[in-house]
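Morning!

As promised:
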Amino acid sequence: MELDRELIVRAQRGEAEAQEDVVSRLAPLVFRLASRFYRSREDVEDAAQEAFSRFFLKIDQIRPDDNVSGWMSRVTVNVCYDRLRKLRRERSGMDEFRAETHARPARWSDAYDDVRAAVDNLDVRLRAPLLLKEIEGLSVKEVAAMMGLSQSNVKIRLYRARKKLAVALESRRPPTLRDDVTEGTES
Amino acid sequence: MNEWLPRDFIERERQRVFEPDVDFARRTVARIGRNATVAGWVWDYVPSFAGPIMAASTVMVLALIGFQWMTPAPFPDANVGIVDAYLQVDAAPAEEWLYRDDALPEGEDLLIEISMAGGLR
């Protein structure tokens, strides 16, 4: 989805109507990307509003031939990434509490919830490329461009995410389904 | 796609997308307009990584100016700050005209002034 040049120029001039038009057209893309990182509508909307704030702060730097939706995608991912990192720092004291609340379930009932919890517990530096590649379906090259990383860095993060996720999911499986646990060793 | 994330998880995550409501664009533009009136100072144009460096530099410059203004010079009759007084010690009488803002005399007057100051032997 591309925006026409005239609309961008009018938005750059500060015309509120053009700016609203730009937001309306880009909002579905921004919401879709933000939905990958957040689970509540409020968080998604807050992130989207901050992404548009940053977008309009830098809108003068957009040239007529630029890929505006690509630009907006990068801004959105960076906003989500920054906000999650900030949130993680603020909640660092809550780690023990989170570890308890995400303790192993009594039974292997809902695979989706378990995978979701394991993904949510990943460090955001690993989670962001994982979600963009596996859920959003982007290539390594696209993820690298969107996050401002090298392709090899993205591959390393994906590898680490995969390993951590495998360990986390294995530890969540009930003892009866685990191959490597002998009877009596589990608490 | 891959065997390490369950397909069910991937599919359900892809379907989990929030949609903007009809008023979102208007609210967002109004909020941006409000923020623009209170923001937009120099820090908006400074890259985030350069912020602490610029802040530290600004504090050091202000501290130096304050030090220069508020600390009395170690000479009783001096009406300059300690930094100026310290720097002035290095300038010989023959060199002082180099640091003055006065218009430079021309031709013969310049030679006379330098020789009177002891610059020419």
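DSSP finds nine helices and no strands in chain A.

Hope this helps with the figure draft.
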